[in-house]
Amino acid sequence: MAVTSTDRPLRVLVVDSDRALQRLLVLIFQREGWLVTTAADGDAALELLRTELPDLLVLDLMLPGMSGFDVLKWIEATKISWLQHVIILTAASRKVLGNLSRTHDICRLVHKPFDIRELVDSVASCADALGVGGQQHQYAAGGMRH
């Protein structure tokens, strides 16, 4: 994977209500040299997105309170081109995900349970395509699933 044009670390916001999964993703993404912020629900995610946009958003759809669908609607209403910075990470049905990919211009869809390498590659690939961040990913373990 090519290193992008900037030499600053990739900034990723992970939005998932599962605290154990948040901690796992923070560890994995930090190993890649990426800066990671987390939110456990849609309201907290919007607060962070309103103050400073990260380079990429890893978003679960099934969140307490304001759902990931609501976060997507907010992005669509306020920063539609930024949808390309979104990676959906969810256990929602494949039918829901198929409909979502047809109606939203998001970067990637990753279904839970997921392969860690696939998720890291998806984040790195989206960052590379958008020209954000500058760290080439280093994840070497194969076949790990969460």
Strand order of the largest sheet: 2-1-3-4-5
**pLDDT under 50 segments (min length 5)?**
1-5, 137-146
Strand content: 15-25%
Number of helices: 5
Topology as H/E string?
A: EHEHEHEHEH
Biggest sheet features: 5 strands, parallel
Question: Fraction of residues in helices?
Answer: 40-55%
Mean pLDDT: 86
| Gap between N and C termini | 24 Å
Shape: globular
Supply Rg: 14 Å
| Number of β-strand runs | 5
* Helix/strand class: alpha/beta
Q: What would a concise description of this structure say?
A:
This protein is α/β, with parallel strands linked by helices. Helix content is 40%, strand content 16%. It has helices at residues 19-31, 42-51, 68-78, 94-103, 116-130; strands spanning 11-15, 35-39, 56-59, 86-90, 108-111.
What characteristics describe this protein?
146 residues, alpha/beta, 5-stranded parallel beta sheet, globular, disordered N terminus
Explain what you see:
With 146 residues, the protein is α/β, with parallel strands linked by helices. It is built from 5 helices and 5 strands; from the N terminus they run E-H-E-H-E-H-E-H-E-H. A 5-stranded parallel β-sheet has the order 2-1-3-4-5, with helices on both faces. Helix 4 links the parallel strand 4 (86-90) and strand 5. Helix 2 (42-51) runs parallel beside helix 3. It is globular and about 35 Å long. The chain starts with 10 loop residues before the first strand and ends in a 16-residue tail after the last helix.
